[in-house]
């Protein structure tokens, strides 16, 4: 029956393109919106995920970066370094500020880095230096392009001018923000605060448990919160999602419902449009059970081919978007593929079965007369 359904489906190329194209476009809408949501969530924690830190130590009860302020005594670096299982500690200065280039301003997480960086530095440099020296800054390439500046130009950060020494990639977010890196000495000088740091990014020794070491740090260091990188990232996602991605989630849901509706209508219409073929099969002695199998086979083939086309276009967009210097990242997750594939198959079966009564009651003579 699958072979028969395949032949019946492919005998009319125009009708095939319409039915498969409708399914592909509806699934493309769902996949792209899912990729946008996944990309936004990934961008939200890109700095944390790529920090190379196993544990992040912050001020007591501060558990994220976004809209948060953390200040801990600089002396905590030595106390944390002496905890069993700690391999290295990198003090990080952090503040949300603007990158100003002429009349253009871009919101950014400004990170002050020490001379020796074990964690928390830029993770993908596309031009220039890997780490900033005094009076220098490393900013996101997309921000630089949109602001019309490049290596050697100056931008204003924290109210002072910095020479662009490097351009990073993957450090921009859909909200228009980015991550900028300057030297610790410049950060301290502009903020006039030499006695504290914002966070301590900790690397643990091989075979040590990040969760166990984090618990030991909290026990031995007063008024500090120590979280694993995964815990910190999850908290960051929760905070940002609650504040700014509800609209994206709603759009994703609406797009999903529209895509499902279009796909269902396409499969339903395609099934009814082949009534003449089913009438011929019935005239040749095919039983209703055989017709049902052919209908389901054609619906499933349409969805599988449409899913392949939609996924192919989505992956192409995922590859092309970064080249366009857009402040957005598309990312296709396995969970999204499983969800879309599962729902597609269910909708295809239901949509194909809806006109089943009409097919079961087909009178071959009436079909041949064009009624």
Task: Give short descriptive properties of this protein.
371 residues; alpha+beta; 2 domains; 14 helices; 12 strands; 52% helix; 20% strand
Describe the fold and architecture.
There is one protein chain. The chain has two domains: 2-44 and 245-368, no CATH class; 61-222, no CATH class. The protein has 14 helices and twelve strands. It is elongated. The longest helix has 33 residues, at 288-320. Helix 2 crosses helix 11 (288-320) and helix 2 (13-44) runs antiparallel to helix 12. The mean pLDDT is 82. A hairpin with a 2-residue loop joins strand 3 (86-101) and strand 4. The protein has helices at residues 2-10, 13-44, 46-49, 76-81, 141-147, 184-191, 210-220, 229-244, 246-272, 275-283, 288-320, 334-353, 356-360, 364-368, and strands at 55-59, 72-73, 86-101, 104-113, 125-128, 136-140, 154-157, 160-168, 178-183, 196-197, 199-204, 224-228. The strands form two sheets. A six-stranded mixed barrel has the order 3-4-9-6-8-7. The chain has a two-stranded antiparallel sheet with strand order 2-10. The protein has 371 residues and is an alpha+beta fold.
């Amino acid at each position: 029956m699958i072979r028969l359904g395949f032949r019946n489906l492919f005998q009319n190329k125009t009708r095939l393109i319409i039915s498969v194209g409708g399914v592909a476009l509806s699934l493309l809408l769902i996949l792209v919106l899912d990729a946008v949501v996944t990309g936004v969530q990934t961008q939200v924690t890109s700095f944390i995920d790529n920090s190379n830190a196993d544990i992040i130590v912050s001020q007591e009860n501060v558990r994220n970066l976004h809209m948060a302020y953390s200040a801990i005594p600089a002396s905590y670096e030595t106390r944390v370094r002496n905890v069993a299982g700690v391999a290295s500690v990198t003090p990080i200065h952090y503040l949300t500020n603007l990158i100003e280039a002429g009349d253009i301003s871009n919101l950014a997480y400004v990170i002050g880095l020490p001379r020796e960086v074990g964690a928390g530095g830029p993770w993908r440099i596309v031009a220039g230096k890997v780490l900033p020296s005094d009076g220098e800054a490393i900013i996101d390439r997309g921000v630089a392009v949109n602001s019309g500046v490049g290596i050697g130009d100056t931008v204003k950060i924290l109210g002072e001018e910095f020479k662009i020494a490097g351009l990073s990639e993957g450090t921009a977010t859909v909200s228009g923000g980015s991550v900028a890196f300057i030297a610790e000495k410049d950060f301290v000088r502009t903020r006039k605060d030499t006695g504290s740091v914002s966070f301590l990014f900790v690397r643990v020794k091989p075979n040590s448990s990040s969760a166990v070491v984090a618990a030991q740090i909290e026990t031995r260091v007063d008024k500090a919160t120590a979280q694993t990188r995964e815990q910190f990232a999850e908290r960051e996602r929760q905070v940002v999602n609650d504040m700014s991605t509800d609209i994206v989630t709603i759009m994703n849901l609406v797009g999903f419902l529209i895509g499902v509706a279009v796909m269902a209508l396409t499969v339903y219409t395609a099934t009814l449009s082949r009534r003449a073929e089913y009438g011929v099969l019935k005239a040749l002695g095919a039983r209703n059970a055989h017709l049902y199998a052919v209908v389901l086979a054609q619906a499933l083939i349409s969805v599988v081919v449409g899913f392949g086309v939609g996924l192919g276009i989505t992956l192409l967009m995922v590859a092309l978007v970064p080249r366009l210097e857009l402040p957005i990242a598309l990312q296709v997750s396995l969970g999204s593929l499983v969800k879309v594939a599962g729902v597609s198959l269910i909708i295809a079966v239901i949509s194909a079965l809806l006109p089943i009564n009409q097919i079961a009651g087909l009178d071959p003579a009436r079909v041949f007369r064009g009624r």
